[in-house]
Design goal:
It is built from 13 helices and 8 strands. With about 280 residues, it is of the alpha/beta class. It has 2 domains: about 150 residues, NAD(P)-binding Rossmann-like Domain (Rossmann fold); about 70 residues, ProC C-terminal domain-like (ProC C-terminal domain-like fold, Orthogonal Bundle), CATH 1.10.3730. Strands 3-2-1-4-5-6-7-8 form an 8-stranded mixed sheet, sandwiched between helices. Bound molecules: NADP nicotinamide-adenine-dinucleotide phosphate.
Length: about 280
């Protein structure tokens, strides 16, 4: 069976991080953006590049929109007839399934949130669908999401609140890793050695969470010996209110996601989704 052709509309930071693993998995990929010159990395990998969204959609079986929300709506409106009967995957924050189904009533809509680790097949992708999507179509979508890493179906109401963890989570962990490297530097450990140790600490933590049934607190306990080293650091961390700092930070990001979503929806409510397509 021949592999599908997948169009990636808006191959910027995220779109490129989706196009590359799809190509690596053997799909034919067509990527678009207005500045074609900026897609050299993609064309060097054998991905077809163009600035013509319409022809890319015409040649594709599945179309991924990785544009900013306003551009996504604009392009969905313009390309409505070319998208008929096709699967449309959006990675756009703030754009609900109901609005996309109104824009594209004859397409299969898959709403997702992922992150740039998809480039290496290591992202955690969450997705939501409406009842209109058949099990067969959902399985087809899962085959594509599998190229980006692990995936999980969630209720759409969790999409915005979860985005600061699933979409941005690695950014917070880089801050933790950098703090460990700096701590190493402060006590005289060479930078690259401190980075390797911090990297392995994150890998080991993830592996323990993955392979064990223990809770996070139980896992932490296994590193603590009475009067030992770990408890010294944990005491200082507790004293600095680190958990509250993380909770407040992620809650602030959730509030921001909710606010952006509401503002975008207000803008959309003022738009006519039935606008005639341009030729
Ligand atoms: N960055 C992340 O970590 C992340 C994570 C999850 C989801 N997202 C979502 O991904 C989407 C894109 O974010 P991003 O960070 O990848 O932004 P980005 O790097 O700015 O990518 C958007 C791309 O769209 C292209 N574009 C704009 N108008 C276009 C048009 N009419 N036709 C074709 N291409 C067009 C732009 O390139 P030209 O100017 O050359 O056209 C740009 O490269 C957003 O909706 C965001 O919510 C991002």
């Amino acid at each position: 069976m021949s592999k599908k052709t997948i169009g990636v509309i808006g191959a910027g930071k995220m779109g490129s991080a989706l196009a590359i693993p799809l190509k690596n998995r053997g799909y034919d990929v067509i990527a678009t953006r207005r500045s074609v010159k900026k897609m050299k990395e993609l064309s060097d990998l054998g991905i077809e590049i163009t600035s013509n969204n319409r022809s890319a959609v015409q040649k594709s079986d599945v179309v991924i929109f990785s544009l900013k929300p306003g551009d996504t709506v604009e392009q969905m409106q313009k390309l409505r007839s070319e998208l008929e009967g096709k699967m449309v995957i959006s990675i756009c924050a703030s754009l609900p399934i109901s609005k996309m189904e109104a824009l594209l009533p004859n397409s299969t809509i898959i709403r997702t949130m992922t992150n740039v680790a998809s480039k290496y097949g290591s992202a955690f992708t969450i997705y939501s669908i409406s009842k209109k999507v058949s099990q067969k179509k959902e399985e087809e979508a899962q085959e594509i999401l599998d190229c980006f890493g692990t995936f999980e179906k969630i209720e759409e109401k969790y999409m915005d609140p979860l985005t600061p963890i699933s979409g941005s989570g690695p950014a917070y962990l880089f801050t933790v890793m950098e703090s460990m490297v700096y701590a190493g530097l402060k006590v005289g450990v060479p930078r690259d050695l401190a980075l390797r140790a911090s990297h392995q600490a994150v890998l080991a933590s993830a592996k323990l969470v993955e392979d064990s049934d223990a809770t996070l607190s139980e896992l932490r306990e296994t590193f603590i010996t009475p009067g030992g080293v770990t408890i010294e650091a944990l005491y200082e961390l507790e004293n600095s209110g680190i958990k509250a700092a993380f909770m407040k930070a992620i809650e602030a990001a959730s509030d921001k996601a909710k606010k952006s979503s509401e503002e975008f929806m207000e803008k959309m409510d003022g738009m006519d989704l039935e606008i005639e397509e341009e030729n």
